Every structure is written in structure tokens, then in C-alpha cells.
Amino acid sequence: MSVCLCLTLCCIAILQMARLTAGLATGAPLSACKKMKPRHPWPPQSDKSIYDVVFEAKHYIPGKTVNVTIIGGRYRGFMLQARKTNTRITFGRWKDPPKFSKLLKCFNKEGTAVTHTHASNAVVNGTYEWIVPETLCIPSITFEATVAQFLSVYWRALESPPLPRGE
Ligand SMILES: *[C@@H]1O[C@H](CO)[C@@H](O)[C@H](O)[C@H]1NC(C)=O
Ligand SMILES: *[C@@H]1O[C@H](CO)[C@@H](O)[C@H](O)[C@H]1NC(C)=O
After folding, report:
1. Is the distance from CB of 107 to CB of 33 less than 8 angstroms?
2. pTM of the predicted model, to two decimals?
3. Which end of the chain is less crowded, N or C, counting CB atoms within 10 A of the terminal residue's CB?
4. What is the three-state SS of 10-29?
């Protein structure tokens, strides 16, 4: 192989790597909205997740908010959405999230997901505030998150327990 070709291939490989890691460095891309599948070149973990998606609320109440926390230790990347239980339909929007996270405009709707901004800053027990639509009347909401401990170690589409509608 010529030196030139070798350099070119090497360059392409580095660019490819940079493109793949970009997803983790600055937050999930919009292409991850639907299946919550990051672009990392590694498969998700198939064992039991070290993270859980939890909340203290007993019900969701239209027009109010629900605080959702990712527990289980430090994580570097995540994407979080609220979905009608057992579907991929996303509802509501997220409040301005805490440091090292930002809103995403999944499915062309503002604030339908939250993701990290800096994979270099690991977060513990991040809490994100979900705003319930005034008119929501589905039986229950499930919060879903993909959470990355490292670029190569992540759990995809972890589900919270269902949160039923209150009065
Ligand atoms: C959610 O957390 C925020 C920030 O800690 C707090 O101000 C708010 O009252 C909480 N909301 C609920 C519904 O618990
Ligand atoms: C995170 O949450 C877990 C479970 O609630 C708790 O045991 C742990 O002490 C918390 N860690 C920090 C740093 O707040």
C-alpha cells in the first residue's frame, strides 16, 4: 500500500471515530429520538442495568410537573423521554434542565427529550422535571432513558415503572 493511501485510510478512520464519538461528547443526536439508540459503535449492554429511572410521584396530574431521576451511579451520557406506556409516542416537554444537560427537539417538538451536553462531566442522580400537558388523559406514562456509563458501556431504552394518571 502506498504511503499516501495509507495516510488517507488512517485519516478516514480517525474522522469516522470522531463522528461516532461526537454523539457522546455533546449529547444524543436527533437520529436517536425514536429508538433511543446512540451512534456509539458498540452494542448496548444486555445484562441488568446498573441504572434505574425513578420518580416519587404517585400519579401524573395534567398541567403539573413530575421529577424524574436517573439513579445508580455516575453516568456520562443519556437521553430521556416520556412516552405513553408500551408505545413510542412521546408526550409533554421537559423544563430547562440542570447543568450539563439540554433539551432536544425530538419529532419536531421542542423539549421532548433531555440529553447531556458534556460527556466529560459525569453526573450522579440527575433529576429532570417533566411538564405534563394540560390535556393529557392517557392511562399512564413511562419514562424511558438510554444511559451511558462510558462510550462503550450503555443501557438502551430503560423504562421506569408506569406512572398512572391522577385527578
Ligand atoms: C422538582 O424539583 C425541583 C428542583 O429541585 C423542585 O423545585 C420542584 O418543586 C420539584 N417538583 C416536584 C413536583 O416535586
Ligand atoms: C444517589 O441516589 C441513590 C439512591 O437513591 C443514593 O443511595 C445515593 O446516595 C445518591 N448519591 C448521591 C451522590 O446523591
Report:
1. yes
2. 0.86
3. C
4. HHHHHHHHHHHHHHHHHCCC
CA nearest to 147, candidates 126, 120, 163, 161: 126
67 CA to middle of ligand 1, Å? 6
Average per-residue pLDDT in the chain? Answer: 88
Cα(109) to ligand 2 centroid in Å equals: 32
Q: Which residue minimizes the CA distance to atom 2 of ligand 1?
A: 67
Helix (H, G, I), strand (E, B) or coil at 6: helix
Lowest pLDDT segment from 15-29, 60-74, 134-148: 15-29
Residue nearest to atom 1 of ligand 1 (CA): 67
Going from the Cα of 47 to the center of ligand 1, the distance in angstroms, rounded, reads 32
For the CA of 71, the closest atom of ligand 2 is: 2
Helix H or strand E encompassing 148: strand 140-150
How many Cα atoms sit within 13 Å of 149 on the Cβ side? Answer: 12
Number of domains into which the chain is organized: 1
Q: What is the pLDDT of residue 38?
A: 86
The domain that holds 38 is classified in CATH as 2.60.40.4060
91 CA distance to ligand 2 centroid (A)?
A: 28
Domain extent, residue 142, equals 2-164
